[in-house]
Amino acid sequence: MNSATSVRMLSVLVVPLIGFLAALCVPRRRPENSRALALTMSLLAFLDALMLVAQFDRGQGGEQFSIDIPWITSPDIHFATSVNGVSLWLIVLTAFLTPLCVLVSWRSIQNRAKEFYAFLLLLEFGLIGVFLAQDLFLFYVFWEVSLVPMYFLIGIWGHDRRIYAAVKFFLYTMAGSVLMLTAIIYLYNQAHTFSYPKILDMLSRGDLSFTSGEQMLLFLAFFVAFAIKVPLFPLHTWLPDAHVEAPTAGSIMLASVMLKMGTYGIYHFCLPLFPRAAHSCAPWIAVLAIIGIIYGALVAMVQPNMKKLVAYSSVSHLGFVVLGIFSFSQMGLDGAVYQMLNHGISTGALFAIVGLLYERRHSLAIDDFGGVATVAPWLSTAFLITTLASIGLPLLNNFVGEFLVLQGTAMEHYQWTIYASIGVILSACYMLWMYQRVFYGEAGHEVRSHIPDLNPREWAAVIPLIAMMVWMGVYSQSFLPPVSKVSALVLEQSKINVTTRVQAAPPVGQEEHDQGVARGRGRPPHLSVLAEAANAR
Amino acid sequence: MQLWLIPLLPLAGFLINGVFGRRYSKSLVNAVAIGSVVLSFAWVVKTLLGVDLNTAHTEHYFTWIQSGTLSIGADFAVDRLTAVMLLVVTGIGSLIHIYAIGYMAHEGGYYRFFAYLNLFMFFMLVLVLGANYLVLFVGWEGVGLCSYLLIGFYFDKKIATNAGNKAFIVNRIGDFGFSLAMFYIVRNFGSLDFGTVFGQAAGKSEAVLTTIGLLLLVGACGKSAQLPLYVWLPDAMAGPTPVSALIHAATMVTAGVYMCARSFPIYVHAPDAMSAIAIVGIATAFFAATIGLAQNDIKKVFAYSTVSQLGYMFVGVGCGAFSAGIYHLMTHAFFKALLFLGSGSVIHALSGEQDMRNMGGLRKKIKWTFLVMMCAAVAIAGIPPFSGFFSKDAILLAAYAHAPWMYWLGTLTAGMTAFYVFRAMFMTFFGDYRGHQHPHESGPVMLIPLAILAVLSLAGGYLFKVPEFLRPFFVGVEEVPENFNLMIYSSLAGVAGIALAWLMYVAKLGMADSFAGSMKGLYTLVYNKYFVDEIYDAAVVKPLVGGSRLVLWKGMDAGFIDGMVNGAGARARNLGSVLRLMQSGNIRSYATWVLLGSLGVIAVIVGIASAGGIR
If we measure between CA atoms, which residue out of A200, A183, A84, A89 comes closest to residue A143? Predict the structure, then answer.
C-alpha cells in the first residue's frame, strides 16, 4: 500500500473536520443551509468510508493505510494512523450513522441548528480519529475531542435535566480519561515513544517489560477509563441519564459509537499491551460483565421511560461484548466485535425511532402511548423489526454476535455462558413488554391525533438501518473475515506477551532453568519466547 | 434439487403481501398467500419423488457464520424424517390456508394475517430442512416469532398481546436450554452439523451426551408445551382459530418432538436423558388431560388436549419408539387440526361464541361440521381402526416395554382423552341449543379442507405407514413386539371414556353437576388448572419485577451507586466552575485540571513502582 493511497484514505477523517469548519461559517439565520451542509458532508464522509472498505485488503490481517507524520518533536508525538479489520467497520459505522443522525434531527432541532450540526460533525471527526489513531497521545487527543461535542449536544439540546446529565457524563468520563492519560505518559517514560505499533514490537521482542505490579496498575488505568465508557457495571449510572436527556442524534451517536470507544479500547489496547494482567483480571471482569448483562436487563424491565429502558438494555448488551473479549477465544473476540457493530445498528435504530415517537407525542413515558400500531403501522413495523434484532432473533444481526460471544465463552468457561444466557431470556421480557405497552392496545385520543406514520425523510433514515440488520444477520461473511484476522492477531499477541513477561521477571529459581533452555536452543531470545509460547499451549 | 425453493416460496408470499397487501384486493392476497404455500407443497412432492431417501441429501448455499474452527453453513437437507415433516407441514398448511380464506373473510387485517401465516410456513420449513442445529434454531425462533405475532393478532386486546408475550417469553426459557445444548455440542464436537455430530456421538462419554440430551429436552419442553413450560399454549388460543390449528396443534408445537427424534443418535447413547423425556411426556399427558376434563371453552379443551397428546409423542420418543412419536405427530396433525378447524367452524357459526355451556344441539344446525368433527373425535379417542389408534397404540406398546406403569398411566390418559373430547362433542352438538345466536353452516371454502382432514383422520393410519417408512432412518433403534392384549386395553379405555361422557352429558344431564358438586375441592383445583399460572406469577414474575424495581433500580442504581456518585459530585460542585469556564470556551483551565490530576496519579504510580511494585 503506497503512502499516496494512505493519505487519500485519510479523507474520511478530514471531510468531517472540513464540514465542522464550514458549518461554523454558515450564517446563523439559515438553519436549512446548516442541515444541508451537514448532510452533504456526512454523506461524503460515508462515501470515503466505503472507499476505505473497497481499498482494504481483506486477505491481510494487520494495519493498513498507515500514516506516520511527526507532529510534535518533544515529546515525540506523531500523527500516526492506520486501519485494521476492526477499526475499519467502526469507522464505517460512524460514517454510516452520522447522515442518519442529520436526517432524524431535521425537524426536531430548530434552536441553534448551526452549532448543532457543527458539533455533530466535530463528533464524527473525533470518533473516527479515535478508531484511526496509532499514536497513544493522538488517541488520547481524539478521545477528548469526541467528549467535548457530546457534552454540548447533551447540555444544550437536551431535555429538562440536561445540565445534570451532561456534567455527570463529563465527570465520569474525565475520571477515566485522567487515569488513561497517566498510564499513557507512564508508558512513554518507559518506552520513549507514543507509537502503539512500536510499543507492541518492543514488548514482543522483550525490549520493554513491566513488573506484574506495574502491568496491573497500567492495565487498570486503561481498563477503568474504557470500562466507564462501555459502560461496565457498576460504572454505568451516567448512561441512563445521558441518554434520557440527550437529543435523538446525541443518543444515537452515544450508544452506537461512543460506547464502542470503550470496548474497542479494551480490545485494541488492553489485551495486547497487558495480557498477563488482563488474564488475571478476566474472571473478575467476566463477573462484572455477567452482572451487567442480567442487572441491566432486570432494571430495563421496570423502566417507565423508553429511552431509559433502551439505555439499560445497552448496559446489558455491552456486557456481552466485554464477556466475549475476556473469554480469550477466537469466537468470543469475533463475536464481541460483531456485537459492537450490531449494537450500533440496532440500538441506533431504537433510539432513532423512539426519537420519532418523542417528536410526535412530546413524551418518552411508556404510559403515554399505546395503540400506536393502529395509527402508524409502518413505524410500528420498523420498531418491531428493530426490537427483534435487539433481542437476538436469528437472521437479524444481534443473533450472530450473541451466538459467537456465548459460544466463544462456552469454549473456555461454560459456567459463564450459563449465567450470561439468562440475559437472552430477559431481553425478550423487557423489549416485548415495552413493545406491547407502546404499540399494542387501543389507541387513545392523544395517540390517535398526534402520531402520523413515517414520512419519506424518516423512511430514508430507518430503511438503511433495517437493511443492515438483515444483511448482517443473514450474511455475516461480508463483515466477519477481516475481524477474524485481527482477533487472531490480538489473541496471539496476548499469548506471546504472557511468556515475555514471565521471562522478563521470572520467579526466583525458575530463572536459571529458563536461561538454560534459551541458551541450549541457541536462539535469539524473542524466538525462544515464541517457541515457549507454543509449548505452553 | 433446489430445496431452497420450498421455504422461499412462502417467504416471497410474506414479502409481497406484507409490503403491498394493504392495497391488494382480498382475492389477490389469497392468490399470493395460498398460491405460494400450494406451490411449495407441489415442490415438496416433486422433490421427494425425485430423490433417493436412503441417503441424506444435503445442499450447501453459503457460509452463514465462520469464526475460528467453527463454520456454520446455510445448509438444507432432506431425508426420510424430513420428508414426513415436509409433507405434514406443507400439506396441512395448504389446507389451513384455504380454510382461513373463509374464516378470516370478515376480519380486519386480512393481508397481515396471511403475511404472518406465510412467514410461519417459511420458518417452519427452514426448521425441518435445516442440516445443522443452528439452521434448525433459525426456524425454531422464527416460528416462535410468528406464533407471537399471530397469538397477538388482535393486538388491541390486552388478553391477546399478553398471551403473545407469554408464549414468546416461556419459549425463550426453553431456548435457553436449547442454546446451552448447542454451545455444549460445539464444545465437544466442534460442529453443529447433524452429520458430523451424529457420526461422532457414539464415541462420546455418556455424561456429555446426557447433558446435551437434557438441555435439548428443555428446549423441546418450551416449544412443545411440556411440563413445566406448557403454560403458554392454553393462553395461545387467543389467536384466530386457523392459527391454533396450524401452529398450536399441527406443526410448530411438534417441533420439539421432531428435534428430539432428529437427535436420536445422541439419545440412544444417553438412556437417562431418554427416560427423562418419557417421564416428562407421560406426566404432561396425564396432567394436561385432567385439566381438559373440566374446561368449558371449546378451544381450551382442545388446547389442553394438544398438550396432553404432545406428551404422548414425548413418551414415544423417550421410550425409543422414535418412529411412533413421529407417527403420532402426523395423525395428531390430522385430527387435532380438524378439531380446531371444526371448532372454528362452530365458533364462526355462533358469531364468536366459545363457551360450550352456550352451545348444544348443533348437530342438526351445522351438520357437516358435526360430521367431520366426529371423525376427528373417534380418531383421537383411539378407536380402531382410525388414525389415532395406530399411533397411540405404537407409543403405548413402547411405553410398556420401557416401564409398565407408563403404559397404564398412558391408557388411563387415553380414557380421559376420549372422555373430554366426547364431552366437548356432546356439549356442543347434542341436547338442546342453549345460546341465542342463529347458527349457520360454513361455506365450502371451509368445509372442503375439513372434509379432506376428516378422511385423513379416519384413514391416515392406514394410508401412511410412517413406522415402516422411517425404519431405515432410525438405524440402531430396537423394535417393540406387537402385543394384542395391550391393544385391547387401551382401546377399551377409549370406549369407556366415550361411554362415560355419553352418560354424563347426554343420558343423565344432571350427573356432571352433581359429580362436580360432590368433589368440590378437586373440581375447583382442576377447573382452575391447578392454579399454575397464579403460582408462577407469585413465585417468579412478581418477585422478579418487584425486586428489579425496588431493590435493583431504586435501591442499587438510583440509591447506592448514584448516591455515591452524586455525593462525590456535590463535593466536586466547586469544580463545577471548571465546567462553567469550559462552557465559556476557556479550554485552558480544563487542560490544567486534567494535567494536575494526571500528575498526581503519575506521582502515585511512580512512587509505588519505584518502591518495588506490587507483586
Answer: A183
Residues B338, B489 contacting (CB under 8 angstroms): no
DSSP secondary structure string for all residues of B18-84: HHHGGGS-HHHHHHHHHHHHHHHHHHHHHHHHTS-TTS-EEEEEEEEEEETTEEEEEEEEE-HHHHH
Percent of chain B with pLDDT over 70: 92
The Cα–Cα gap between A302 and A309 comes to 8
Rounded Cα distance, A292 and A279, in Å: 20
- The C-alpha atoms of residue B167 and residue B145 are separated, in whole angstroms, by 9
Residue B57, pLDDT above cutoff 60: yes
SS3 B456: helix
Nearest to A484 among B67, B187, B602 (CB): B67
Cβ A245 vs Cβ A150: under 8 Å: no
- The answer to whether B332 and B274 are in contact (CB under 8 A) is no
Residue of B nearest to A303 (CA): B549
Domain with B558 in it:
533-610
What pLDDT was estimated at residue B164?
92
Q: Tell me, what DSSP letter sits at residue A232? A: P
The domain total for chain B is 1
Question: Burial letters for A19-53: b for 16+ Cβ neighbours within 10 Å, e otherwise?
Answer: bbebbeebeeeebebbbebbbebbebbbebbeebb
Across the interface, of B67, B138, B155, the residue whose CB is closest to A330 is B67
* Structural domain contains residue B602: yes
Q: Nine-digit cell at B302?
A: 382442545
Average pLDDT over residues B394-417: 92
Position with higher pLDDT, A26 vs A44 = A44
pTM of the model: 0.89
Shortest Cα distance, chain B CAs vs residue A378, angstroms: 10
Helices A480-504 and A510-521, axial angle in degrees (round to 10): 120
**DSSP readout, B588-602?**
HHHHHHHHHHHHHHH
Nearest CA in chain A to B547: A298
Helices (H) and strands (E) in chain B, counts: 29, 2
A252 and A295 fall within a common domain: no
- Domain residue limits at A503: 498-536
CB spacing of B67 vs A408 below 8 angstroms: yes
- Compute the count of residue pairs across chains A and B with CB atoms less than 8 Å apart: 186
Strand partners, B62: B74
Residues A292 and A411 in one domain: yes
Q: Please give the tally of structural domains in chain A.
A: 3
Closest CA to A270 of A236, A232, A241: A232
**Nearest alpha-carbon partner for B182 in B161, B211, B148:** B211
- A391 pLDDT tier (thresholds 50, 70, 90): very high
Whether B281 maps to a domain, the answer reads no
CB contact under 8 A, B602 and A481: no
Judged by phi (left if over 0) then psi (alpha if -120 to 50, else beta), residue B107 lies in beta
Please identify, among A253, A273, A293, the residue that sits at the C-terminal boundary of a domain.
A273
Q: Does residue B588 have a pLDDT over 80?
A: no
- Which residues from B are below 8 Å from A169, CB to CB? none
Burial A98-123 (b: 16+ CB within 10 A, else e): bbbbbbbbbebbeeebbbbbbbbbbb
pLDDT at B576: 55
Q: Within this chain, do residues A213 and A78 fall inside the same structural domain, yes or no?
A: yes
User: How far is residue A337's CA from residue A265's CA, in Å, rounded to a whole number?
Assistant: 11
State which of A241, A273, A305 marks the end of a domain.
Answer: A273
Residue among B43, B33, B30, B42 nearest B10 (CA): B33
Q: Is A328 left (phi over 0), alpha (psi -120 to 50) or beta?
A: left
Q: What angle do CA B307, B312, B317 make, to 5 degrees?
A: 120
Asked if residue A484 has pLDDT above 80, the reply is: yes
